Amino acid sequence: MAAMISSRGRNALRVLVDLARQDPESFVPLKDISARQEISQKYSESIMAALSKGGLVEGIHGKGGGYRLSRKPEDCSLGEVLRITEGSLAPVACLETGSTRCAHPCPTLPVWEKLEKLVTDYLDSVSLADIM
């Protein structure tokens, strides 16, 4: 079975926990975060771009620049982070937004819908503060 959460989503969570452990008023250089988490800076940049666009982090460039969380760790759910970095968390393609359902009634659909709800509810109930 393929992994439901890719390395991009897992690394985004690691980067955000790292940021959450820093002074919330300071901007942390990405090179420092990347070094601590042993993630390439180029890969970290692509993750931070998505997190910034999603409103979870704010960044400034230049001397003294870096990133910080845009809200408190307890206000950032893992579900939100993963939807930003992974897109859909649907366990099957037919539940993804914009997909077409099977033309015939599918006897397994209720199973996949319940699994999606369980996963989404759980990930939305866990915050960055919970995993710090």
Molecular structure report:
This protein is mainly α and 132 residues long. The protein has a single domain (7-131), classed as Winged helix-like DNA-binding domain superfamily/Winged helix DNA-binding domain (Arc Repressor Mutant, subunit A). The chain has helices at 7-20, 30-37, 41-53, 78-86, 109-125, 128-131; strands spanning 57-60, 66-69. The chain has a two-stranded antiparallel sheet with strand order 1-2. It starts with 6 loop residues before the first helix and ends with a helix. The model has no long low-confidence stretch (mean pLDDT 91).
Shape descriptor: elongated
Assign the CATH superfamily.
Winged helix-like DNA-binding domain superfamily/Winged helix DNA-binding domain
**Strand order within the widest sheet?**
1-2
CATH architecture: Orthogonal Bundle
The CATH class is Mainly Alpha
Q: How many domain regions?
A: 1
Query: How many β-strands, per DSSP?
Result: 2
Number of helices: 6
CATH structural fold name: Arc Repressor Mutant, subunit A
- Indicate the structural class: mainly alpha
